[in-house]
Amino acid sequence: MPTAFGCSVVGQAQSVDFISIMNALPNAAAVIGWREGAPFFQLWNAEFARKFPPMVEDAEDDSVQWVAHVRAEIIAFALSGSSHRRFEVERMSPLGVEVFDCSLAMIDDPCVGGQRILLNALDRTADRRIEESLRRELVSDTLTALPNRVGFGELMEQAIDRHSQDVTSQLGVLIVDLMRFGRVNEALGSMAGDELILSVAARLNGTVGKDAVIARIGGNDFGIFLQAPGGIADVLSIAERVQATLSAPIRLSNLTISVNCAIGCSLSPIKDADADELVRQAQAASRIAKNSGRVEVYRAGELGAARQRFFLESRLRDALARDGLTLSYQPMVELATGHVIGFEALARWQDAELGTVSPVDFIPVAEESGLIVQLGRWAVHEALRQMNGWDARNNGEVPLKVSVNLSSIQIARDDIAAMIADALALNAMDGRRLTIELTESALVDDPVKCRTLLETLKRANIAVAMDDFGTGFSNLASLQSLPIDVLKMDRSFVTDMLIDKDKLAIIRAILSLSQTLGMKTTAEGIEDAESAAMLRDMGCTYGQGYYFAKPLLADEAYEFWLSRKNAAI
Predict the structure, then answer these.
(1) CB of 414 within 8 A of CB of 377?
(2) Which pLDDT does position 431 carry in this prediction?
(3) Residues 352-378: what's their mean pLDDT?
(4) Contact call for residues 436 and 457 (beta carbons, < 8 A)
(5) Which pLDDT score, from 0 to 100, does residue 46 have?
(6) Could you report how far apart the first and last alpha carbons of the chain are, in Å?
(7) What whole-number distance in Å separates Cα of residue 440 and Cα of residue 450?
C-alpha cells in the first residue's frame, strides 16, 4: 500500500532527491512499476495524488472508465517496446469535462528500482475550454447565437454524412433576405437593426421549430436547411410559413414596421448534395426573388449565369484597363432637313475570347459591379476626343454635337459635374457641343441630386436629353420644372406606329407635351421612310434608326456626315 509521503514500499531504499524532483514538477507525475504481471504506482507527486486519487488509492480498481483507459494505455506501452507514448484522458467532473495530455516514457534508475515507466499528465482543461469558446465564436453568430455561415455549412455537411445512404430523401435550403434591413439601420440606428434581427430570429425559430436548422449567414440573410422527404413541397411549405410569420409587423421601440423578405430555395438528393453549392443556388434564387416578389426555386443554369456575370465583370475590368472598348456613333438627323446634327456615342466591346459582347449583356454587369462609373467616364472622354479628331480632319470645327448616355447608378455614385468639366477642359471642348442623356430612373431615384446636376450642366451650356421617355415613371410636374432640352421617344413606340393606333396616339401625346414645354424631340428606332415622314409631319424634331444608318465607326460616321451635308429626306 502507498505510504503517506507518496511512494509504495517495494523493498528498496527510496531516493529522497528523486521524490523532491517529482514534487517540484508543476504537473501531475508518477513512476509506475510492474508487479505480478500488472502495473502499479510506485512513486507520485502531490499534484498527481490530487488529480488522480483513484489511481493511487486503489490501483486495481478499473470500474471507473477513465482509470481503465489509463491502465490500458500503460499496458500497451509496456508491451510495445517503444520509448515513449502519448494519449489523452477525458473525464467528467462537477465543473464539466476535464482533459489531460498524458505521456509515458521509460526510465532506468536505481533510485526507483531499475527500469520503470514515468507518467506525466498535463492538465489541458483550461486550454480546451478556451478552444471550445473560440470554436463557438467561429461557428456562431454573436448577436443571435444561431450558427453563422461557417457553422451552417458544417451542420449541413454533418446532415449529409448522416443520411448519405438515404437514396430517397432530399436536402432543401432556403435563404431569407430581409430587404428593408438597410433602411432600418440608416433611419433608426444599429441598435434598432440588432433588435430587428433578434425579433426575426425568434420568429423563425418559433416557426420552423425542430423541422429545420436556422442560421444567420450574413448581415440581413438567414439560412434554413431541412431534410425534405416530400421534395419541393416540404421546402415550399417552410417558405410559406416563414413568409406568413414575417408578414406580421414587428415593433421596434415605439415604432411598428413591416418586414419584406425575399426567399430563394434549392433542393438536392442527399446522396448527391454539396452544402456550399446548395447555399449558392439558394442565394441565386433569392436575388431573383427580390425582383419577382415571390418565393423562387433555383433552376438549372441560374448559377451558371451568375458565374458568367462574374466572368464578364473580370473581362470588362481588363478591357477598361487596357482600352479594349470602342465607341460607335449613330447619326441623329434633323427630320425637317435631313441634315446630320450629331451622333449618339454607343459603347461597343469586341473581346478576344468572347467575341462581340452586346451592351445588353455588359452594361448590367457594369452597373452591378460599379464599373459603370469607369465606363461612363471613359465614354465621355473618348467621345470628346473623337470630336477633336473630326475637327482636325475638317480643318475646323464640325457643326456636330455628340450625345453620351450616363447611367442612373453613375449619377448616384460619381461627381458628374466635375467629371464632365474635367473632360471638356482636357479636350479643349465647349460644353455646347455635348449632350448628356439620362433615363427617367435617374430622376426618380434621387430627384434633388439630379436637379442640381442638370442646373450645373445648363450653366456649362451642355444640353440634356431624357432617354427612353414614356417607359418610366416621370412626374410631369417635375418634368416641367427641370432644365431638359430633348425628350427621346423610346423605339418601342416608333416600331409599328403606322399600323398601331395606340402607339400613334402615344407619340402624338409626347410630341404635344414636348411642344408645350418648349422641348425638342427625338424618335428612336426609325426603320422606314414612311415613319420618318409621318414623324416629321407631326412635329418631331430629330430621328435615329437604321433607316438613316446603323451605328458607325468613327471614320464611317465622319464620311456619313460629309455625304449628307446638303441632303434632305
Answers:
(1) yes
(2) 93
(3) 90
(4) yes
(5) 85
(6) 121
(7) 10
Q: Residue 242 pLDDT more than 50?
A: yes
Q: Which residues pair with 552 in a beta bridge?
A: 329
CA 551, 553, 554, 559 dihedral sign is negative
Per-residue pLDDT tens for 437-473? 988 777 666 677 788 888 999 999 999 998 877 665 5
Question: Contact at 8 Å (CB) between 29 and 42?
Answer: no
pLDDT(7) > 90: no
**Following DSSP, what letter does each residue of 22-44 receive, concatenated?**
HHH-SSEEEEEEEETTEEEEEEE
Contact 62, 71 (CB under 8 A): yes
Q: Is the dihedral of CA 512, 517, 520, 523 positive or negative?
A: negative
CA nearest neighbour of 510 among 483, 458, 472, 558: 472
Tell me what pLDDT residue 262 has.
92
From residue 360, give the alpha-carbon distance in Å to each of 348, 364, 386. Answer: 11, 7, 24
Give dist(CA 345, CA 333) in Å, integer.
Answer: 14
Residue 376 has pLDDT above 60, yes or no: yes
* DSSP, residue by residue, 260-292: -EEEEEEEEEGGG--HHHHHHHHHHHHHHHHHH
Q: What does the mean pLDDT of the chain come to?
A: 85
| DSSP-derived 3-state class of residue 185 | helix
Interatomic CA distance for residues 309 and 356, integer angstroms: 15
> How far apart, in Å, are the Cα atoms of 259 and each of 191, 300, 318, 505?
17, 30, 40, 42
Distance CA 444, CA 441 (A): 5
Cell of 296: 423562387
Quick one: pLDDT at residue 134? 77
Are 154 and 146 spatial neighbours (Cβ–Cβ below 8 Å)? no
Strands 520-523 and 486-489 come out as: parallel
Phi then psi for residue 477, to 5 deg, are: -65, -40
The per-residue pLDDT for 63 is: 65
Q: Is 112 exposed, middle or buried (0-12, 13-18, 19+ CB in 10 A)?
A: buried
Domains assigned to the chain: 16-129 (3.30.450.20), 140-300 (3.30.70.270), 309-560 (3.20.20.450)
pTM for this model (two decimals): 0.57
**pLDDT of 353 strictly over 70:** yes
Average pLDDT over residues 54-77: 78
Rounded Cα distance between 342 and 337, Å, is 14
Contact 345/402 with Cβ under 8 angstroms? yes
The span from the CA of 333 to the CA of 531, in Å, is: 14
CB atoms closer than 10 angstroms to residue 253: 10
As a whole-number percent, the residues of the chain with pLDDT over 90 amount to 37
CA 207, CA 199: separation in Å to the nearest integer?
12
pLDDT for 11 equals: 36
CA angle 146, 150, 154 (to 5 degrees): 90
Spatial contact of 102 and 120, defined as CB atoms under 8 Å apart: yes
Alpha carbons 195 and 200: distance in angstroms, whole number: 9
